[in-house]
Structure formats: C-alpha cells, structure tokens
Prior knowledge:
Bound molecules: glycine
Shape: globular
Structural class: alpha+beta
Oligomer: single chain
Number of strands: 12
Strand content: 15-25%
Number of domains: 1
CATH class: Alpha Beta
Largest sheet: 8 strands, mixed
Amino acid sequence: MVLAVHGGAGGALRRENTNPELAKVVRKGLADALRAGQKVLEKGGTSVAATEAAVRSLEDNEMFNAGKGAVFNEDAGHELDASIMRGSDQAAGAVAGVRNVRNPISAARLVMEKTKHVMLAGEGADDFAARSGLPTVTQDYYWTEARWQELLAAKGHGPASAKKQLTQGTVGAVAVDHEHNVAAATSTGGLVNKMVGRVSDSSSIGAGTYAKNGTVAASATGHGETFIRGAATSTISNLIEFGGKDLASAAYDVLVKRLPKLGGDGGVIALNAQGVFDAPHSSAGLLNGYLTADGKIVTRIFYDETPPNQ
Length: 310
Ligand code: GLY
C-alpha cells in the first residue's frame, strides 16, 4: 500500500439494512480522497502533501465529521481540530478549536512548516490561517441537517434514530512517498454536543496522529479522551521501536487490547515505509480504504469487510 484513508469508526454498516445509494456515496467519498492523494504521489509529491490532499477531500465532503459536515458542540457551534506529522524528521503541526478555517488540515500543515510551534488553538489559530491566505468560512458553512438532528437527539429533543449517524467519526490519511518517507494526518469536528473548548485526540500528536519513518504512520478515530490517555498512535510506534513488534501486532495490541480497558473504542489506519498496512479496530466498524502502488483502490465500509478485531 502507498496511501490509506479512514472516514470514522462509527457503527458498522450492514448490507441488509443499508440503502445502496448511501453505500455508494460513502465509497465514493473514500475513493475520491484516495484519488486526491494518488494525484499528488503520482506527480512525485511528498507523503505530507498526499495526506493533506486526501484529508481535504474528506473535509469538503459533508458525509464525514470534519470540515463541512462537522458535528455541533453544546452551544450549536462548530470547533474543529486537525494535525499532521512528517515521518522523516518528526516535524508536526496541529490546530485545535478553529471556527473559521475551511480546511483545518491545511492550517495544521502551515503550523508545521511556517511556525516554530507545533499547535495553535482558538482565535490565534484562526487568525494565523487567515493571515496565511487559507480560505475562511463563517460557521454556517459547516452546517448540515443530519448533524443538526444529531445535536437535537443528543440533547434529548430529536428522533432517537438521529443518534445513530452513519459517520460519527473523524477522518484521516497515511501515506508513503517515492522517497520512502511516511506521513499521517487527521481531522475532526469532535464529539457531538461536546463542551465548548473541548480538544480531541485528532489534534494531539501521539494520540490521534503520529509518523516516524522507522516505525509507522498512524491516524486514529474513536473516543478521543481514551486515545489521548492511552497515547494511542505513539504507543504503536513505541511497541514497534522498543517492543520488537511488527506493525500489525503493535496496532492490534493498542487498539484491541489496551484502549478498551481505558473505556473507549475506535480504530486506526497504520502504514510503514515498506508499504505494510493494517486497520485494526475495537469499534463495530471502521470506514476505510487504501491505494496500492500499482494504482488499485479498495474501499471497505460494510461489517463483513471490516469485522471488529477480537
Ligand atoms: N476522535 C475524535 C474525537 O474524539 O473527537
């Protein structure tokens, strides 16, 4: 594999009760993101640029909980988090609680490449993104009817079915480029009805995002508080580097054995510089897809395509 994406670790999609139109839209969203990253890699672009392009595509797609289509916080507003990491030198950038950046992942990349810091939050992050020339939006840009119903349900006002949104999760990408450098990127609207000011694992390097050339590029999705407490993605890297584990068993160990004991579930996409890829999850489902070096795109959205790891 050279590139992989995820679109959240929500409930599992079952063929028997999933509208074929919906399945098509979700598969297309994942495939579009893979194609966006593929274009970059085919032109000799870096893994950082490829993961940014893939995540931007998912942020622009209202099916996913990042950028347009992000969930609402308790004040019916949107605060978005994102981070990116480069495996060659462990440079990293992140934004937390941004309210007006159209593509938070691009702001995170600019923090990494244009500042001496790793994370900017709130107004300062929004100002930095605007001053850097990134497109800005007003809060209504992120709005979707589905997310609004989800907020009402979370507050006890809407139909209970709205609680079971298809794509509760975060989005992310991992890639390896022609120079064998890996990168990881993650973006989210967070948890529906979250407290104002809550920061997720998706903007926390070592929790939602991690990349190191000798070990792994990993992007996580799931219950953010658990992924922060369990230092999810950096622990996968450490198990490979210091624990002698291979990529698949390190990722499985963290996602399936360790994090559920801390009380939260989710999934991860993990890729190394040799193209070894795995996507273990303790959640019922994990929407994900990957691109092979010879250009084949595979998307996995149904329960039988991604059964939970035991
Ligand atoms: N993993 C995304 C969140 O907890 O907001």
